[in-house]
Amino acid sequence: ARMSTRLTRRKFTTEDSKPTAQTQLPAGALAQECRANHGDQRTYLRSEIGYCIRQPQRRFRSLKQFFVSVFLPQGYPATVSSDYMTYQVWDTAQAFCSYITGTLAAQAVFKGYGVGDQEATAAGATVTWIFREATSHIGRIAFAWMQGSDLDNNAKQWRLVADILNDIAICLELFSPLFPAYFTVIACLSSLLKSIVGVAGGATRSALTQHQARANNMGDVSAKDGSQETIVNLVGLLVGLLLTPLVSNHQLVTVILFAVFACLHLYCNFRAVTCLQLDRFNARRLGLAVVSYLRHGRVGTPQAVNQQEPLFVLRRPRFDVVLGPALSLCVSSSPQAVARFEAAVKCSSDYLLLQDSQGHVCALFTPDADNTVFLRAAFHAHLLRVCSENGRVSILSAISIVPLWAARTTHHSKGWCETVPPWSTRSFPSFWTAASETGGWWTTVSWGLGSGELCGDNSTHTHTH
């Protein structure tokens, strides 16, 4: 571990310990090393060979210190985000409720497989299991293909959706014995939902771990999260062991307990995702920040913006912002549209804003575009969206391709450049400054980019891929 090497008459600390005030060392001691998370202390004593280490037997001063050392990342709370503990408490509670509901449904699944039925065969159970596993594998691949790029961008939303689907899957398993003729179909449907839960839950957990780790300690945060989940599962096993004999022959009691724990599970999940203060811009958070900047001249803090971010979006906004879509979605195949596109590309620099057939704002980028360019393009796109929704700019016009140049481009063409107020192209630096002054935002874009890139030299024929 890295440590301070100021060998003076004071204690020094390792990376995961708290600074200590100047103190007198024991006689003959060269230095002392205090490890806050472990509750022990090493003393380096002078000797003929240089120094020797005197390390007392590790002991924990309290039960709380023991649990902090075993289940929390090294250096907690300095090495994790401010919302870490609140989120982990609610996440642990929901994991326990989910384990109990799964235990209640396990007995129903075993009955469906034929346990206790003299007419059931091992071959039949094996075939059902094969169908379930095949459905699960196909579901994982299909869901990752269709929604993989969105899991990082909307981690909170997908985390909540995953747990809702998990409760639905367990509910199907619980009632599957009531329909023995359709057990295989119900089991496959439940397995399909659980495969989505596995992909969405694992991917969003990685995104949240990246948010929580603040000292290049993603591995430690992830490992300790696994330890917390393991201890919850052990407690769930004990509780399930007590519940199973009590509810084995009482279907009504089983259903009531499932309903209670399922409701608690959803409530704990809702509290967990609402306490998160994600500090990277995605589409919704950037849109809320732009609105705050236009109304108040300042960018809201991550806490304020996250509280406004919707967890459920029932329909796509009328004016949406898409970064890097396929060119075919933005440009029609008419000669006039192609000619306008070629003229726009020759004048663009880092990115190009277009309007698709549904009125959404789309951005295409050059291959060397960096994160600043992504954020600038997204800001300008949201600026146009906000102005359009307030009736200040008519983007639903006959113009199907309208370029908005990057800051260093001097060419001005017909389209948005004439209808958008001139201050719009100069407002991004002040927005960037306002976002930086909040002290909480990372100036990065958590946004899935599609395939739209502007390639080639501006003076020659340019294409996208």
Question: What can you see in these coordinates?
Answer:
The protein has 465 residues and is α/β, with parallel strands linked by helices. The chain is 52% helix and 10% strand. It has 14 helices and eleven strands. The strands form four sheets. Strands 1-2-3-4 form a four-stranded mixed sheet, with no helix packed on it. A three-stranded mixed sheet has the order 6-8-7, with helices on one face. Strands 5-9 form a two-stranded parallel sheet. Helix 9 packs across helix 12 (371-389). The longest helix is centred in the N-terminal third of the chain and has 30 residues, at 84-113.
Order of helices and strands: EEEEHHHHHHHHEHHEHEEHHHEEE
Gyration radius from CA atoms, angstroms: 29 Å
Oligomer: single chain
- What are the low-pLDDT stretches, counting only 5+ consecutive residues below 50? 1-21, 392-422, 450-465
Amino- and carboxy-terminal Cα gap: 47 Å
What is the helix tally?
14
* Spatial arrangement of strands, main beta sheet: 1-2-3-4
- Approximate strand percentage: 5-15%
Q: Given the helix and strand composition, which structural class is it?
A: alpha/beta
